[in-house]
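Onboarding guide, step 5: your first structure request.
Type a short instruction followed by the sequence, for example:

Predict the 3D structure of this protein.
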Amino acid sequence: MKQLTIPAFFLLLAFVAQAQGFTKIDAHARSTPFPQKQDTKALAQALSVGCTTEKEKVRAFFVWIADNIKYDIKSFENRSDTDPKEQEEKQNPQHVLRAKKAVCAGYSNLLIALCKESGIKALRVDGITKNYRGTVSRAGHAWCLVRADGTWGLIDATWGAGDVDFDEGRYHEHFKENYFFSP
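The system replies with structure tokens like these:
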């Protein structure tokens, strides 16, 4: 039992230490208002104030997106009735900033745009996931692969922002730390 307790303790300690290490960055991101225009460059610059590393900048982007962009349940539910080109247009960073809502592609595209404005390499990953019941979702999902300070990590701003209860058709805001720079 001791063998399991010690690694679990250090894993928990590392998780808490990471969260505490971003307290000031998170507070700054949460106090940064929406840009007056849908300008990713201005937003990236505003969020980068006080950041000394690439990872801190990416953290500010992640927190801001998670706190300010809402999940677009209607777009998700109507995706089969909408032209794919129109769907993708609604997920471009400027449209996401204007609408203040998106599906996973929009969350990812906005994070990538902010990273690009800051010279940070970021890629969108499109794939499939398992839902909370453990079954593979047929809908697909998008998240990001980001290289900050020489290290690659996975970031999912959509799942970091909250949860969608598709049975109820409701979005529940709930910031989740563990979707930032997952190994």
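Each response can be followed by summary notes, for example: Residues 78 and 87 are 10 Å apart (CA to CA).
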